[in-house]
Amino acid sequence: MKINSGIKNKKTLLILIQIILFIVIACSLPRIVILDDTLSPIEHLNLGVIYEKKGEYDNALVEYKKASTKIPLALFYIGNIYFLKGEYDLAEKYYKETIKRDPLNADAHNNLAWLYYITKRNLNEAESLVIKAIELNSENKDIYDDTLLRIREMKEKDNIFN
Predict the structure, then answer these.
(1) For residues 109 and 100, is the Cβ–Cβ distance under 8 A?
(2) Taking a C-beta distance cutoff of 8 angstroms, is the pair 107, 74 a contact?
(3) Residue-wise pLDDT tens digits, 106-138
(4) How many CB atoms lie within 10 A of CB 135?
(5) Where in the chain are the domains?
(6) What is the distance between the alpha carbons of residues 116 and 47, in angstroms, rounded to a whole number?
(7) Which of 73, 106, 117, 133 is most exposed, with the fewest beta carbons within 10 Å of its own?
(8) Coil vs helix vs strand at 121
């Protein structure tokens, strides 16, 4: 009987040594860590601008959307892309979201006003938006005045024909 128990103890000891060796080796192996996203929000925004300049609007949208979680300006850029693509409902949504999250963004006010002008709707609101843009950023007054002038001309034509 002593012989059998000695064999069992040796087998148990061998198994225990193998387990310990496995644990030690496994813990010392180099690990590969895969990050979900290596770019910062500002880097996504900048990459989106590059794509937009190249006319790669879908790629720009992907990058702007990644940046928009932290940078409200990205929402404005998303609105611009949808405007360029003629997807006015989506452009309107993103301009409004920009204004909601960054009410001092004069360009968002102006671009939403321009969208209303282009689509010939909400002209009273468009006029108010562009006036607000002028109040927020008088440095771009010339650009915003052009939008305001065109909206007022359209409103006058609508009044003449109605």
Answers:
(1) no
(2) no
(3) 999 999 999 999 999 999 999 999 999 999 999
(4) 12
(5) 39-102, 104-156+158-162
(6) 29
(7) 73
(8) coil
DSSP 71: -
Q: From CA 81, how far away is CA 142, in angstroms rounded? A: 23
Structure tokens at 156: 């006058």
Q: Let me know how long the chain is.
A: 162
Report the alpha-carbon distance of residue 143 to residue 124 in Å, rounded: 19
Residue 54 has pLDDT above 70, yes or no: yes
* Sign for the pseudo-dihedral over CA of 89, 121, 98, 105: positive
How far apart are the C-alpha atoms of 49 and 47, rounded to whole Å? 5
Stated pTM of the model: 0.75
d(CA 38, CA 61): 18
The answer regarding whether domain 39-102 maps to CATH 1.10.3720.10 reads no
